[in-house]
Description:
The protein has 169 residues and is α+β, with helices and mostly antiparallel strands. It is 25% helix and 34% strand. The chain contains three helices and six strands. The protein has a six-stranded mixed sheet with strand order 2-1-6-5-4-3. A hairpin with a 2-residue loop joins strand 5 (109-123) and strand 6 (126-136). The longest helix is centred in the first third of the chain and has 23 residues, at 3-25.
Amino acid sequence: MSGPARTDHERVEQANSALYEAMEQGDFEALSALWLPGDVSCVHPGWPVLRGTGEVLRSYALIMANTEYIQFFLTDVEVEIDGDTALVTCTENILSGGPAEEEGELGPLVGQLVVATNVFRRTGDGWRLWAHHGSPVLADTAGGEDGDDGTDGENGAGEGSGPGGAGLL
């Protein structure tokens, strides 16, 4: 791989990491600056497709307002670049907590696995997010047998599914 392609690869990885860092820090301004203006799309696990910068950013504001604590551990990060478009796939290993019942306390922590696809476009201001799609990992891919996906017949989404739920990133 030549020098410029490696530089693009590093810049895309940096833009992808910045998305999750902004969420962890609750930095709505930084998160907003990462998205392209206009025709973008976003699918949070359990949510319908959101279209347009305004609708997408409102969803992140709602999630941030209803999530006391969140931390992402990204694994399986793969970056592919074709011209001015970059595709990033990864697994979001999420630890999150909602509001506590008592002041000064942290709410219950919930772990969740989400596979994500992030599509970036090259702009004059660097790589900007064009689309995000997150899907919950419902099956135990490590050792389930005979169709046992570890969900005991449930859909695996659990509490917090839907707009405003703490486990939907």
